From TrEMBL:
<keyword id="KW-0963">Cytoplasm</keyword>
<keyword id="KW-0238">DNA-binding</keyword>
<dbReference type="InterPro" id="IPR001789">
    <property type="entry name" value="Sig_transdc_resp-reg_receiver"/>
</dbReference>
<dbReference type="InterPro" id="IPR058124">
    <property type="entry name" value="CpxR-like_REC"/>
</dbReference>
<keyword id="KW-0597">Phosphoprotein</keyword>
<dbReference type="InterPro" id="IPR001867">
    <property type="entry name" value="OmpR/PhoB-type_DNA-bd"/>
</dbReference>
<dbReference type="InterPro" id="IPR016032">
    <property type="entry name" value="Sig_transdc_resp-reg_C-effctor"/>
</dbReference>
<feature type="domain" description="Response regulatory">
    <location>
        <begin position="4"/>
        <end position="117"/>
    </location>
</feature>
<dbReference type="InterPro" id="IPR011006">
    <property type="entry name" value="CheY-like_superfamily"/>
</dbReference>
<dbReference type="InterPro" id="IPR036388">
    <property type="entry name" value="WH-like_DNA-bd_sf"/>
</dbReference>
<keyword id="KW-0804">Transcription</keyword>
<keyword id="KW-0902">Two-component regulatory system</keyword>
<dbReference type="InterPro" id="IPR039420">
    <property type="entry name" value="WalR-like"/>
</dbReference>
<dbReference type="Pfam" id="PF00486">
    <property type="entry name" value="Trans_reg_C"/>
</dbReference>
<feature type="DNA-binding region" description="OmpR/PhoB-type">
    <location>
        <begin position="129"/>
        <end position="227"/>
    </location>
</feature>
<keyword id="KW-0805">Transcription regulation</keyword>
<feature type="modified residue" description="4-aspartylphosphate">
    <location>
        <position position="53"/>
    </location>
</feature>
């Protein structure tokens, strides 16, 4: 069965090119020409992935994402203006899984989509993986469920996979490069702050429940889960 992708972008010409390129690769794309329509469609049915442009009429990509999260946790790949770091950071802060600057190479878009879908497939097939428990946090791969201090924590797929990797390697430094390759399925580019933002989101969601340091940044390039994990 083909993967279902929702493309929310007001650029009809670009949308037609994306659909023409991706359709032969086994993807079924549905196009929404503005953010308002895209939001309704994303809420109305399940999609495997959402491609979300930032600059659109009626509702921009940030408004769409703000109203989607956390009720809809479908992976979101933001399409941002090249060089606009603020858009990328804001999108990641609001729960986007990854971003791709415009104009982009269609092959790079296909690679990003493939990596996110592969990660989601691994998460849904994780029933045989053991539950990870620390004194504060419990992570169940089979149910894709996380709790902190016995309270549920709602995480995006990227946040969940990042926390799982850190807990699997508790007490060991995990580099940004490792997280990018293991979680996002791509090498970390220079000046790429996506991992920093996902870690920041994780910290906030955990600290909102328990005000204690669980994830430490070491020399700005690696992360350490501080509690022991069984």
């Amino acid at each position: 069965m083909a993967y279902q992708i929702l493309l929310i972008d007001d650029d009809r010409e670009l949308a037609a090119l994306v659909i023409e390129f991706l359709s032969p690769q086994g993807y079924q794309l549905t196009h929404a020409e503005d953010g308002e329509l895209g939001l309704r469609m994303a809420r109305a049915q399940h999609y495997d992935l959402i491609l979300l442009d930032v600059m659109m009429p009626k509702l921009d990509g940030f408004d769409v994402l703000r109203q989607l999260r956390p009720a809809v946790l479908t992976p979101v790949l933001m399409l941002t203006a090249r060089g606009d770091d603020l858009d990328r950071i804001l999108g990641l802060e609001m729960g986007a899984d990854d971003y791709l600057p415009k104009p982009f190479n269609p092959r790079e878009l296909a690679a990003r989509i493939k990596a996110l879908l592969r990660r989601e497939a691994l998460l849904t097939q994780a029933h045989s993986q053991r539950v990870l428990n620390s004194p504060s946090v419990s992570l169940d791969p089979g149910r894709q469920f996380v709790s902190c201090a016995n309270q549920p924590v709602v995480l995006t797929g990227t946040e969940f996979a990042t926390l799982q990797l850190l807990m699997q390697r508790a007490g060991t430094l995990v580099s940004k490069e490792d997280i990018s390759e293991q979680v996002l399925g791509r090498k970390l580019a220079a000046f790429d702050r996506s991992i920093d933002m996902h870690i920041s989101n994780l910290r906030k969601k955990l600290s909102d429940i328990q005000d204690a340091e669980l994830i430490r940044t070491v020399r700005g390039a690696s992360y350490l889960f501080l509690e022991s994990v069984q």
